[in-house]
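Re-running the complex after MR caught last week's input typo. The corrected sequence lines follow. Everything else is unchanged.
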Amino acid sequence: MNNADNFLDSLGSKAPVIEEEFEIKTRIKRDKWTRKEVFE
Amino acid sequence: MDKLELQAKKGLLDKMYFKDAKQFNFYVCGTYVDKEGNKKFTKWKKYLDAVANIDVLNLEKNNWKDLKYFEGIDQRQIYPHEIVLDLEDPNQLDPIVEILKQWNFSVWKTGSRGFHVHILFNRNMTTIEKENVVRLLGADVQKCSEKNLIALENTPHWKSGNKKTEVKDE
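Corrected-run output:
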């Protein structure tokens, strides 16, 4: 098994931006009644 | 499919579940072509429901529908700790192998036109981490999704009938 962090580092693809984007995506949820997307 | 082929297939899927997938209960399914020539998938089932329950030593003891489903399995889910690079153009392969040469990976001829490069990791990768790697290496981003199945190793391709086989170092 390859070490994931070392692998990402070697490709230069482990920028902090990635985690930030991921967090934003997970914070978007649908409102229970209106079904509109809301930020928590 | 005869008894020996069924035993080999069960052995392959068992090894994948216990060794490669680290007991991650991955989805499998089969494919077929409908009357209009479109590719269709059979219902997705998990390894423990579609493979683990099959007795390949006493075939008559299986439910015939379960056995039929097992026989048709030719796709599997990508593991959470795995990245698969889907390369349509064989010319893409050499530059990628050059970048990956210090890592453990395997190259597979899909049985159709392209190649699959499988890379396993010590932890699960997020979809975004997978997408970044795949984009950086110029492969198909579709294969990063949890909802995407790929051709099963050592199994005939749904369209061409050619087996997906590992390409060893040359």
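None of the earlier attempt is carried over here. Strands of chain B lie at 27-33, 39-41, 45-46, 73-77, 82-87, 105-109, 115-120, 149-151, 165-167. The first strand of chain B starts at residue 27 and ends at 33.
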